[in-house]
């Protein structure tokens, strides 16, 4: 057995070198690679400070786009906490990342409510709202879906079923990877680390 | 004389304890751990989470919940699919004998709407869990910040 050890070690090194160089050329995404499958980031909305914004405001940043609403006490917070945790882990590099939380419930999600909601999770999360048309257009552009449900109590509270994916765009505004509720924080962190290193 | 007075006092106290026990519903052979609420601003609906441990020999059925601090407390379940997420109301939740059920983010949760007083992180919110067999359990839920991942312990 002893004389096999030396060549085996060389073989390992060779395999590692091939894998490593492959990584350097083509990033090994851990989330779903959607490059070329969805159009570049484009919208005309209002941020949670009441200012009109377009995709150009976020050019040069890594953008995470998520559709949700504030009367969503379980799933939306769970997603935003995951993203907050990832941003914390990234440290200074997170300054190059923006999470855009687009409301699918613009009637109840006024600018002040949206602002209080997103900042309660992380100051790097931006709330976006707009006309029903502008939001519907953006959702359609990324094949996202949402539907207000029938009110479930006397107070007229209602839920909104919505797409749960997170669309990740590179610095050029091109759709790169897609995270789903099944994605782990480590997978999101891994892919964001690659994206922030791209110039 | 002192001994007699002591006896009278003891008897009176015993009577009081018996009376107060009769006034409140019986408690089930169960206990609750890690009870917390994720705080949200603007009096938005919030979610309550906990682990209900059934220490008894029979199935325990959670039928409803209520709190003096919220107009309505409903048992909900989030359905997280690959493509979309939605919330559904749940009629009841069964906890098998000598087992526990977790109300946790992304699954079963209590949805609390319309707070009756300003609620802040650090507060305790009392919630009464009512079971199908008529027993109830009052639990203090800790209010944690919006971006909390749950109680540390």
Could you please describe the fold and organization of this structure?
The complex is a heterodimer of chains A (199) and B (153). Chain A has 199 residues and is an alpha+beta fold. In chain A, 36% of the residues lie in helices and 22% in strands. Chain A is built from 5 helices and 10 strands. An 8-stranded mixed sheet of chain A has the order 1-10-9-4-5-6-2-3, sandwiched between helices. A two-stranded antiparallel ribbon of chain A has the order 7-8. In chain A, a hairpin with a 5-residue loop joins strand 9 and strand 10. In chain A, helix 2 crosses helix 5 (185-197). Chain A is globular, with a radius of gyration of 20 Å. Chain B has a single domain (25-144), classed as PCu(A)C copper chaperone (Immunoglobulin-like, Sandwich). Helix content of chain B is 14%, strand content 48%. Chain B is globular, with a radius of gyration of 19 Å. The relative contact order of chain B is 0.25. The A-B interface holds A 70-75, 77-78, 80-81, 84-85, 112-113, 116-117, 120-122, 145, 149, 152-153, 155, 157, 159, 161-165, 180-182 and B 38-42, 44-47, 71-72, 74, 76, 78, 80-87, 89, 105-106, 109, 111-114, 145-149. Strand 8 of chain A pairs antiparallel with strand 5 (84-89) of chain B, so a sheet runs across the interface.
Itemize the secondary structure elements and their pairings.
The complex is a heterodimer of chains A (199) and B (153).
Chain A: H1 5-25, E1 32-33, E2 44-47, E3 52-54, E4 62-68, H2 75-90, E5 97-103, H3 111-121, E6 125-129, H4 132-141, E7 146-148, E8 160-163, E9 166-169, E10 175-179, H5 185-197
Parallel strand pairs in A: 4-5, 5-6
Antiparallel strand pairs in A: 1-10, 2-3, 2-6, 4-9, 7-8, 9-10
Helix pairs in contact in A: 2-5
Chain B: H1 2-23, E1 30-38, E2 46-54, E3 60-66, E4 70-80, E5 84-89, E6 93-95, E7 100-103, E8 108-115, E9 124-131, E10 136-144
Parallel strand pairs in B: 1-10
Antiparallel strand pairs in B: 1-2, 2-7, 2-8, 3-6, 3-9, 4-5, 4-8, 9-10
């Amino acid at each position: 057995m002893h004389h096999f050890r030396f060549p085996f070690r060389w073989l390992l090194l060779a395999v590692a070198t091939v894998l490593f160089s492959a990584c350097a050329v083509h990033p090994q995404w851990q989330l779903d690679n959607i490059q070329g499958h969805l159009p570049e980031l484009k919208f005309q909305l209002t941020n949670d400070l009441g200012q009109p914004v377009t995709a150009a405001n976020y050019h040069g940043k890594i953008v995470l786009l998520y559709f949700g609403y504030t009367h969503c006490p379980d799933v939306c917070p769970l997603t935003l906490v995951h993203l907050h945790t990832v941003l914390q882990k990234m440290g200074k590099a997170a300054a190059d990342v923006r999470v855009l939380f687009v409301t699918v419930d613009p009637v109840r999600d006024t600018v002040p409510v949206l602002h209080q909601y997103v900042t309660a999770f992380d100051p790097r999360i931006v709330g976006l709202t707009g006309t029903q048309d502008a939001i519907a257009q953006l959702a359609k552009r990324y094949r996202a879906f949402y539907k207000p449900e029938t009110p479930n109590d006397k107070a007229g509270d209602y839920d909104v079923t919505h797409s749960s994916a997170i669309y990740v765009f590179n610095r050029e505004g091109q759709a790169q990877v897609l995270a789903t509720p099944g994605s782990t924080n480590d997978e999101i962190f891994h892919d964001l680390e690659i994206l922030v290193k791209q110039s | 004389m002192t001994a007699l007075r002591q006896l009278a006092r003891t008897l009176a106290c015993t009577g009081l304890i018996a009376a107060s026990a009769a006034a409140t519903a019986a408690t089930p052979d169960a206990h609750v751990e890690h009870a917390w609420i994720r705080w949200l601003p603007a009096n938005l609906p919030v979610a309550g989470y906990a682990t209900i441990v059934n220490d008894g020999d029979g199935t325990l059925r959670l039928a409803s919940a209520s709190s003096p601090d919220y107009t309505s407390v409903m048992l909900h379940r989030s359905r997280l699919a690959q493509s979309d997420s939605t919330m559904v109301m749940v009629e009841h939740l069964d906890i098998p004998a000598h087992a526990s059920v977790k109300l946790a983010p992304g699954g079963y949760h209590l949805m609390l709407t319309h707070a009756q007083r300003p609620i802040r992180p650090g507060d305790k919110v009392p919630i009464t869990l009512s079971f199908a067999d008529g027993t109830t359990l009052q639990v203090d839920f800790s209010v944690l910040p919006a971006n909390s991942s749950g109680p540390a312990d």
